[in-house]
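step=encode ok
step=design start
structure_in=
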């Protein structure tokens, strides 16, 4: 589990992939391994759905159509019609984080999002991506998002906006890390006190919480993209 707490059996431990050595330097690899597991799960589900698409959806296709359709509607309501072009990124972020989070509730697995490196990588990607989209749309005029509405406010607004934007990856990283790691620590404590009676209701509560954390990351990414794509005022 997270934060170095003991876990009965971990798949990465059985495969000797908790740590690898590169250039004679041992490096933690467990979070990378479970990120790959999450990617493999999503690829497998994607290929399964691709081969079973029906005009009248049923089963797994129906679940994902409702999920993806709902997320796209939310994204369009936040960003506008431009969201349809960038929704594969937004939807992919939600599904990837959700899968990683749920691995923490899967026996034999650990949540990669309980490791700061995983979250920092995703937060940095979001930071670079929304700025790329803003620069792609507005070119040199994108600087207007940082300088404020009138020229004489630029010396004040520029450092404030720069600090605000640079704080976003840190905020995304620590929010996800704190919630996921905290939940797993609490789950381990409850399991140690009363293995079954206390763990089952907490398990389902954390199932909801982990889904919510993926949704919050998705929403914040959409909000950042909205700010980058709209005209600077």
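sequence_out=
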């Amino acid at each position: 589990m997270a934060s170095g707490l003991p876990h009965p059996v971990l798949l990465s431990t059985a495969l000797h992939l908790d740590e690898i050595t590169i250039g004679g330097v041992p490096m933690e690899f467990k979070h990378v391994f479970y990120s790959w597991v999450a990617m493999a799960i999503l690829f497998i589900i994607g290929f399964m759905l691709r081969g079973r698409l029906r005009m009248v959806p049923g089963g797994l296709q129906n679940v994902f159509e409702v999920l993806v359709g709902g997320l796209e509607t939310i994204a369009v309501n936040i960003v506008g019609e431009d969201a349809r072009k960038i929704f594969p990124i937004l939807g992919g972020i939600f599904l990837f984080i959700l899968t990683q989070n749920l691995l923490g509730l899967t026996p034999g697995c650990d949540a990669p999002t309980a490791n700061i490196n995983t979250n920092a990588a995703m937060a940095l990607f979001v930071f670079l991506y929304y700025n790329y989209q803003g620069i792609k749309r507005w070119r040199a005029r994108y600087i207007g998002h940082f300088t404020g509405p009138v020229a004489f406010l630029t010396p004040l607004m520029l450092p404030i906006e720069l600090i605000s934007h640079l704080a976003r990856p840190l905020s995304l990283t620590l929010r996800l890390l704190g919630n996921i790691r905290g939940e797993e620590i609490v789950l381990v404590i409850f399991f140690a006190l009363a293995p079954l009676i206390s763990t089952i209701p907490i398990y389902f509560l954390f199932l909801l919480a982990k889904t919510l954390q993926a949704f919050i990351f998705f929403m914040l990414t959409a909000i950042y993209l909205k700010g980058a794509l709209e005209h600077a005022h």
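step=design ok
step=annotate ok -> Residues 2-229 form one domain.
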